Amino acid sequence: MIAKVLAPASRRERMTRRPHLDTIAVDTETTSAAGDVTLPIHLSSTYELAGLDTDLSLEDINPGDGEFLYSRLSNPTRHGLEQELAALEGGERAYAFSSGTAAVATAVLSLVEPGDHVVAFDDLYAGTRRMFETLFRDQLGVDVEFVDATDADAVAAAMTPATELVWVETPTNPRIKLCDIDAIAAVAADYDATVGVDNTFASPYFQQPLSLGADLVVHSTTKYLNGHSDAVGGALITDDPEVAERVEFRQQIALGNMLAPFDSYLISRGIKTLGVRMTRHENNAMALAQYLDDHEHVETVHYPGLESHPQHDLAREQMQGFGGVLSFELAGDMADAKQFLEALETVTLAVSLGGVESLAELPAAMTHEPLSPAARDELGISDTLIRLSVGIEDVEDLRADLERGFAALES
Q1: 271, 295, 317 — which closes off a domain?
Q2: What is the mean pLDDT of the chain?
Q3: Is 291 a catalytic residue?
Q4: Which keywords fit this entry according to its UniProt record (predicted)?
Q5: CB-based contacts of 217: which residues, under 8 Å, 6+ apart?
Q6: pTM above the 0.85 mark?
């Protein structure tokens, strides 16, 4: 069991003890004697040893000192990226994975055993929820309980002496709901339970869960950290040594699900522009959210930057920005949503998010289609709910494209 201790500091104090993320994102540790200003790509699978040391163990190999043995264990390019990720999230150790799904699966496999109890947000990404239900609950015998984690009291009511892990996403996909990380961490501390937070939607630029009491953070680095829709990856960052030890064993020894050097390079390259991208994503998203909020064809807009969002105050307190993803519900039915989406030209119809280009999708027919209609209704995912990942294009062009979609509904 991993003990949980919260520092005796206020939420705002913990959040402000941060260096400037714009500088961290650019200040790459290259691990190169040549003095590269960008992270070089190391493709070697194995590394020459200076000599044969019969007393050498894996624990003696320290990538931080430039020591490498085999790329499954550590690779200079991946190690450089992991140092960046740890710095961005304010953690001690980071691990780069082949996907965000791999990062989530490894985190949970590292922390729970059959018979353990897990409290999970009922509004998880559909793939993550299926993983918790099918793999961990049905196959591995983990007692997974889904609750409305927007209410910390609901999390508290679900906790038991057997609870080992609390798992949340904030903001969520696609309804953009928020969890009070600070309050949930306090609840988990009473049970010595570990708190994991999927921080993909906010990115470290707008939210740092470790500073709010979480034990580990995961990302789909495919999204905002990479930012260019050209590399699939995941990350796990922690400031807990025991969590780090467990994750390291499962990733490097048991599962081998690490990120490849070229993808590590691409994500490191993307991180350099994280600050300027996130600022533009947020500015554009806020402008479009306000535009949609007043549109006659739109019933509801979900974006934490709007005062109408039920957790707007929490967003202002917990986050340093409101992010680049919003969702909205059209008046009409799925056929209307299909007509709207297929009329768009600047915004691309595609799954995923967080790239420089704007993407739109219909969760009920795409990312959340595997869920039953009843499950989607329970989560508030209607047939006309459209998720928009707002890119960095000119906002007037984006607004004009949405008008093109609305015009198609009137034709």
Answers
A1: 271
A2: 93
A3: no
A4: Pyridoxal phosphate, Transferase
A5: 89, 91, 196, 197, 198, 199, 208, 209, 210, 236, 237, 238
A6: yes
